């Protein structure tokens, strides 16, 4: 059963996204919310890790939190999906368990 | 620099919205402007996201306080330093930063940019010259 | 929560009389607040209130008195852009009182 991981801290300030990426299994879903959404941006110092993750994990970002910080689909790494609040709820329902990386 | 005026520098290092640091710091900056001190601002690390262009809070329902940074010129705060390495690390350039301006009293109120790009090494020197540095 | 009655509607205000929901504002609210404060509203008052509302729309903050004075001088002329004139219009302070009538929050740093 696949796990949903949520990350809410900026990867430039905390280690939680990197930690999550190394401790999540193939086929699991990683959803970036709140301050973590900037981890989805292209060309950052963590972009290589995210590029590697999209190859075998389902990486998503909460669109409203992305827009709040001034960014849109054009700014994020190819392969990362944008979800809205309803999509967030669907992800929670579809996965066996949710792990929040705080 | 006339007697009694101190050099205050507010260093903003945190992303907006996820925590309250950015908004609180902005309020302190606006209050400090009432005391006729020399005030400058720094945006570095995740703090540069505070002045990112095109912030749109419609879907999240949060208050978009980024327009308030555009009022800093009215408050005679016109030295706004942006650390270039912090931009690069986040895949950003100065084009991603809001156009913050002031009107220069000594130059027939010409509108000028308040944004001053600065390197990490230069910033260390600049902080060393301040009377008061407040970091958040 | 305190309320004031404006054109038959109950409008929520905080303990200092400022609007709770800034989006609820309409001009009659300013008139009722002015009556409560015993200020007789004229065109000069409305000029400042409209100015404040435009300022808030653009910057999402209520300006400090010093900033308001400077901005009014620029927009409406030096004879209006001084604190004596503004205090005559709004005796409890152009920051505090005019912002209240205009449906803005209390200016940051105003005690």
What does the model show?
The complex is a heterotrimer of chains A (102), B (136) and C (111). With 102 residues, chain A is of the alpha/beta class. Chain A has one domain (3-101): Hypothetical Protein Ychn, Chain: A. Chain A is built from four helices and five strands. Chain A has helices spanning 16-23, 47-56, 63-68, 85-94; strands at 3-7, 29-32, 58-62, 81-83, 97-101. In chain A, strands 4-3-2-1-5 form a five-stranded parallel sheet. With 136 residues, chain B is α/β, with parallel strands linked by helices. The longest helix of chain B is centred in the N-terminal third of the chain and has 12 residues, at 21-32. In chain B, the strands form two sheets. A five-stranded parallel sheet of chain B has the order 6-3-2-1-7. Chain B has a two-stranded antiparallel ribbon with strand order 4-5. Chain B has a single domain (7-135), classed as 3-Layer(aba) Sandwich (Hypothetical Protein Ychn, Chain: A). In chain B, α1 links the parallel β1 and β2 (38-43). Chain B has helices at 21-32, 84-89, 120-128; strands at 7-12, 38-43, 80-83, 101-104, 110-113, 115-118, 132-135. Chain C is mainly alpha-helical. Chain C has one domain: DsrC protein, C-terminal domain (Arc Repressor Mutant, subunit A, Orthogonal Bundle). Chain C has helices at 27-36, 43-59, 65-76, 83-89, 96-101; strands at residues 2-6, 9-13. In chain C, a hairpin with a 2-residue loop joins β1 and β2. Chains in contact: A-B, B-C. Chain B binds chain C through residues 27, 30-31, 33-34, 63-65, 67-68, 70-71, 74-75, and chain C through 58-61, 63-64, 66-67, 70-71, 108-109.
